[in-house]
Write a structure and sequence with these properties.
This protein has 5 domains: 117 residues; 97 residues, Calcium-transporting ATPase, cytoplasmic transduction domain A, CATH 2.70.150.10; 48 residues, no CATH class; 144 residues, HAD superfamily/HAD-like (Rossmann fold, 3-Layer(aba) Sandwich), CATH 3.40.50; 124 residues, Calcium-transporting ATPase, cytoplasmic domain N (3-Layer(aba) Sandwich), CATH 3.40.1110.10. It is 52% helix and 17% strand. Helix 9 runs parallel beside helix 22 and helix 12 crosses helix 13.
Amino acid sequence: MTSTLTSPSADRSVSARSGDVPRRRTRLLALPEVRWAAAATVLFLLALPLQLAGAPAWTWGPLYALSYATGGWEPGWEGLKALKDKTLDVDLLMVVAALGAASIGQVMDGALLIVIFATSGALEALATARTADSVRGLLDLAPATATRIGPDGTEQTLPVEELAVGDTVLVRPGERVGADGRVLDGASEVDQATITGEPLPAAKEPGDEVFAGTLNGTGALRVRVERDASDSVIARIVRMVQEASETKAPTQLFIEKVEQRYSLGMVAATLAVFAVPLAFGEAFSEALLRAMTFMIVASPCAVVLATMPPLLSAIANAGRHGVLVKSAVAMERLGQVDAVALDKTGTLTEGTPRVTDVRPLPGSGLDEDELLTLAAGAEHPSEHPLARAVVAAAHERRLALPATQDFASAPGVGVKALVNGRTVEVGSPARLLDHADGDASPVAALAEELEQRGRTAVLVVVGGAPAGVLGIADRLRPDAAATVTALTALTGTAPILLTGDNPRAAAHLAAEAGIEDVRAGLLPQDKTGAVKELEGAGRKVMVVGDGVNDAPALAAAHIGVAMGRAGSDLALETADAVIVRDELAAVPTTVALSRRARKLVVQNLVIAGVFIAGLVTWDLVGTLPLPLGVAGHEGSTVLVGLNGLRLLRDAAWQRAATDATD
């Protein structure tokens, strides 16, 4: 039950000017596995109350039969095809066990087996389809066409796949960059958060590198293509997600080996239980009854429920508290992690720039509120993230914004406007100081001080003279430091920081959060390389991130966790768990909950093993009455199920939160 992910050469339907990425989701009922599992479950739920109420067999018998057919035909057919390759899988064994149970009157037991395995296959198919949807959505980040400029200056629109290294392309305002390359001419600001994770658009001038799929701002750029479309950063991200998603975990490979041995053992044992007594003169009906009883009591229903209820209960509990864990495998893996890698922007931080410092210059005649009022008035017409941060800061202080006239914006420089009859400029200190009056050294010193503290310095020039400097930064989440401490206690090692941001800002923020190992200036492949390095050393790594640039690392890690509120579609789909409420402290609590679930799984496996061994021994050594065998089998199933459901209670989440902080 696997699906193939879309390759980087797949068709892309987004227009070159589109700034939005369409969400492509496979509809739930579009998957045949989901339809068959749903039909089998509904039929089972219709038949069960009729049987328990004592209704005639003709009312519930056909419903059970249809449940067998809808839920069991596909795994049965796949199992029969596998026999051609001399492979016997547990799905076929369960279908045979279900039919065997039905043949001696235990129709409900067999139908329950069918429903359990049909549902499991549907969940696997859905998870695979959603991953494929995510990769197709990522491909839509890159435009389908680009404007190539010929040697004679003529423009030609052509598919990006036809671009060659050395070509020159024109990227107009609002367009997405068509290929990885270097700016030849023009100035603009490019939003490249999808690649580097940086929260702010990056100023681009001649000589600067740009990436395919990033969004150009208000200036026009001429870009020389330096990489083939199939080798662009965005295409490499797609390939890394595909490769990591298609790799089987060691645990899965181990389970497949166990399934083979168990299946062969069950078939051989059942045939022996039937044939040996028959050869020694036992009546056919008695031998068949003993063999069918053996098949029922040896059926791994209790083993299946030994694992699933604790994990599914933990998933449901986590979901009520804002954490979406996508599968039981993911919940189990969460408890195995012994190393954590954290992204910075949108993960440790809130992901939204905010004004942290308002510093009027001596002699400007302005106080903090006056300086911020003038800056916000000039920035108000702008859509730049820094401008929105300045305006938001003025609103927070309840300052009235003055009227703005003659607004102008220069990419990479800043804005200029007439505010209350005064010319106000707001932007990069290095650019604005070139034509500002007065001594530049105090401004440079103040900007350097702010940048040393991890801030982005923004100069405010009033009437041609520097008036003050604003410090803007992405704020650390309130629970970031506590989360780092909790993860350190749970895993035994301190988390590391993986970010595409500059080393100075990353180091400052890491110090606030209590992280010592900082790796900054990383592209997506660098983050993935860091994760693989840790896993190569035998660590089981959990990556927590939010952007498209984090998706390959999320997929390559032992477990990937995405922040939900600001997370990209690909990160949310690639990750094994999503923090829906955007509470970072939920990460260590979920890890602790997973560890409690794993303990219950071990308890349940012991209970299931004791019951199965006892009943099988009784059936082989003595004469186990079929009703008693069914009662013992179903009793063990109910027992392990109830034990696993203990994690549904809110008290389990609270205990996990306590475990994470102790």
